[in-house]
Amino acid sequence: MYAQLVKTAGSGVKSREEMSENEQDFQNRVDADQKIEPKDWMPDDYRATLIRQIGQHAHSEIVGQLPEGNWITRAPTLERKAILLAKVQDEAGHGLYLYCAAETLGVTRDELTEELLSGRMKYSSIFNYPTLNWADIGAVGWLVDGAAIMNQVPLQRTSYGPYSRAMIRICKEESFHQRQGYDIMMKMAQGTDAQKKMAQDALNRLWYPSLMMFGPSDKDSVHSAQSLAWKIKIDTNDELRQRFVDQTVPQAKYLGLTIPDENLKWNEERGAHDYSDPNWSEFFDVIKGNGPCNTDRMNTRIKAWEDGAWVREGLMAHADKKAARKQAMTAAE
Ligand code: FAQ
Q1: CA dihedral in degrees (311, 317, 322, 326; nearest 10)?
Q2: For residue range 116-142, what is the model confidence (pLDDT) as tens digits?
Q3: Ligand 1 centroid – CA 23 distance (Å)
Q4: What value does the mean pLDDT of the chain take?
Q5: Cα torsion angle, 190, 194, 196, 199, sign
Q6: From the CA of 274, how far away is ligand 1's center (Å)?
């Protein structure tokens, strides 16, 4: 379970001399910041790495609806309910753009879904943590969407055209998501003592899982070297994590909340915060399927897929009938 769909060459990036002529031309285009489009020649591993990353990203958007969707019926006001509903719908839309981007690489959405449901493809570790109360919904918007934007803004410049264009639209919506989460946190942090305590507790529980979203530390990242060379990734996992910490510290201060890290302090020399790493063995355990909510999330997705079978079958039957009618009419002309 949780085996990799594909595995790129890790840090074994080919030198110019080792590349074929096609590979050299391809690398020249990437180096010149030209976008690679679906019908262009590309190395097999470039295609496979994109399918893996875009597919996992799409699955994350879809599974990512679950922790928040769970709170739509329990939002404290009608306005909060409408906002959360819109946000969760946006996540479904992001999943769909991303599946479409992956389809341009020659894989179908159904194939990707089957890879997810059989446990062969991953989705972001963060969605295997529970949302226990309303403050968690604020913290998800603030921290989880905040981390997602930090990762996705550079991906607008990724080398594969359809992925880059999907990212441009997604990032616009993610900014609204992050703001709505921060707005909930402001209300909670400026509320009663009990509400402030809930906000602090949500930050305590979601801080390290949010840091894990950026992936393992650079020394343990299997795909980074090749993905950076191909400009599938623009920054390393640690660079993005550092940027997220630096951005979030003043936001927590403004809320009057404390980030649960005794080692967190400004490092004048580096011009960045020193901070504690998350517990990496917990991270690897969660991505192997052993997080607090993995089983629940997968069972929910499997049930949704099975319950939706009649809709997919109905749509296919309708499309077949329409095509047959069109063919009959063309033949009669
Ligand atoms: N969770 O060699 P690397 C969102 C895996 S969107 C699970 O460093 P890579 C919006 C990795 O796949 C959140 N697995 O890998 C939203 C690989 O395993 P594999 C999703 C992880 O690909 C908000 C292995 O570890 N965003 O949240 C994680 O170069 C609120 C080795 O790692 C994206 O997908 C993880 N956190 O770098 C929705 C962004 N990290 O595949 C609803 C696009 C690593 O060999 C509510 N993706 N792994 O079996 C990326 O930028 C990259 O794929 C990284 C990982 C940075 C996530």
Answers
A1: 160
A2: 999 999 999 999 999 999 999 999 999
A3: 26
A4: 95
A5: negative
A6: 23
Q: Is 60 in the pocket of ligand 1 (CB under 6 A)?
A: yes
Alpha-carbon torsion, ordered 244, 101, 227, 36, to 10 deg: -120
Other Cβ atoms less than 10 A from the Cβ of 194: the count is 8
pLDDT digits (tens, 9 = 90+) for 71-109: 999 999 999 999 999 999 999 999 999 999 999 999 999
Q: Choose which residue among 123, 125, 177, 222 to substitute to test ligand 1 binding: the one with the highest number of ligand atoms within 8 A of its C-beta.
A: 222
User: Hey, whose CA ends up nearest to atom 9 of ligand 1?
Assistant: 223
Q: What are phi and psi of 272, to 5 degrees?
A: -155, 165
Pocket flag, ligand 1, residue 57 (CB < 6 Å): yes
Q: Count CA atoms closer than 13 A to 222's CA, side-chain side.
A: 8
Residue 317 CB: number of other CB atoms within 10 A? 10
What span, in angstroms and rounded, lies between the C-alpha atoms of 4 and 67? 25
- The C-alpha atoms of residue 248 and residue 175 are separated, in whole angstroms, by 14
Question: With b meaning 16 or more CB within 10 Å and e meaning fewer, what string describes 72-91?
Answer: beebeeeebeebbeebbebb
Q: How far is the CA of 271 from the centre of ligand 1 (A)?
A: 27
Give the residue whose CA is nearest to atom 46 of ligand 1.
64
Phi, psi angles (nearest 5°) of residue 42? -150, 150
- Residue 144: CB within 6 Å of ligand 1? yes
Distance, CA 60 to ligand 1 centroid (Å)?
Answer: 9
Tokens describing residue 130: 């529970």
